[in-house]
Design a protein that fits this description.
Strand content: 15-25%
Largest sheet: 6 strands, mixed
Shape: globular
Oligomer: single chain
Number of strands: 11
Strand order of the largest sheet: 1-4-3-2-5-6
Number of helices: 11
Length: about 350
């Protein structure tokens, strides 16, 4: 279990929100003051547990959350130097994600909120990733465009204001992070695949192999990476059948280039059509240095700026959930007592 503390400007001293995140394989708890000061951000990772299987096993993830959640919450309270009576609300991810994993966090949050008579806030996981940027740059001004790229999601989201979001592009099949993991597995790199592919790609040429880009319909901001993933797998299979040698570093670099080119170009074009001056990057793949650099260069050439959370806040964490929960809470939006886990919770539907 890792314990991290980030210090920011002082907020409302009397408003402390406990955030909980258990949507996949990270058991996380955070204490946030005033919607911007992260007093504690505690994450118990399950990577070592799932590495032997080459990916997350939902049943095992749920059991690990049950084992970890109490000690993670207690560690967050201790790190923040506060007690149960100091909390003013509980925010928890209730979707999307693995249903068993979500249920652990939701059940814990509901029990805590009921026992302590605290407001309960249900947070959409994708909106949590978006709000990680507000912890990094609390002075962000609307309108904004956010590219969310993770293992399960690839979205372009237009933000007119807090609570006023519009999905203008989404993945039609494999998310970008999912494609990274599957290609990493095919190359024998292990899990999690994204950082391993990026590391190997630094040693290769992004122009070595000609791989497809799925631009889809003219003017579309949607994404598709299943064809690219299949092209890499087919290339590997053909090379084995023919006894040909594939350079893994070149293939990793070529694959990464194909993913990043589409992400960057569609984001750049969307920012231009929406006349947005600031673009946000969020999600686990936002930690990819090549994507950050290419997107920053493309936006800067158009006179726009890129904002990216610190690496710790790119991966699943509870500070981002507490931040999104804070902005719901100050608008008077709380969850009912029968809040449930919704594994396929749509962002637009959740916004209402």
């Amino acid at each position: 279990m890792a314990v991290f503390t980030l210090r920011g400007p002082a907020g409302e001293a009397g408003r402390l929100i406990l955030g909980l995140e258990t949507s996949c394989d990270e058991t996380a708890a955070a204490v946030l003051a005033g919607g911007r000061e992260v007093r504690a951000n505690v994450i118990a990772s399950q990577v070592a547990t799932h590495q032997r299987y080459g990916g997350v096993v939902p049943e095992i993830a749920s059991r690990k959350h049950l084992e970890n959640i109490t000690r993670v919450v207690e560690a967050a309270l201790a790190q923040a130097d506060c007690g149960w009576s100091d909390l003013t609300a509980v925010a928890v991810t209730n979707g999307p994600g693995l249903v068993g994993a979500l249920l652990v966090g939701v059940a814990y949050a509901k029990g805590l909120a009921w026992a302590r008579r605290l407001p309960l806030v249900g947070v959409h996981h994708i909106e949590g990733h978006i709000y990680a940027n507000f912890l990094t740059r609390p002075d962000l001004a609307f309108p904004l465009l956010c590219l969310v790229v993770s293992g399960g999601h690839t979205h372009l989201v237009y933000l007119k204001d807090h609570g006023c979001l519009q999905i203008i592009g989404a993945t039609r099949d494999d998310a970008a992070g999912e494609a990274f993991d599957k290609v990493a597995r095919a190359l024998g790199l292990g899990y999690p695949g994204g950082p391993l592919v990026e590391k190997l790609a630094r040693e290769g040429s992004p122009a070595a192999y000609k791989l497809p880009r799925a631009w889809l319909d003219e003017g579309s901001f949607d994404f598709s990476f299943s064809g690219l993933k299949s092209a890499v797998l087919n290339l590997l299979n053909r090379s084995r059948q023919r006894g040909e040698t594939i350079n893994p570093a070149d293939l990793a670099a070529s694959f990464q280039e194909a993913v990043v080119e589409v992400l960057v170009e569609k984001t750049r074009r969307a920012a231009g059509e929406l006349a947005v001056g600031t673009v946000l990057l969020a999600g686990g793949v936002a930690a990819n240095g090549y994507l950050r650099r290419k997107l920053d260069q493309a936006l800067a050439a158009d006179g726009r700026r890129l904002v990216v959370p610190v690496p710790l806040l790119c991966t699943d964490n509870a500070a981002m959930i507490a931040c999104a929960g804070y902005h719901l809470l100050i608008r008077g939006i709380t969850a009912p007592e029968d809040l449930n886990a919704v594994p396929y919770l749509p962002l637009a539907g959740w916004q209402g």
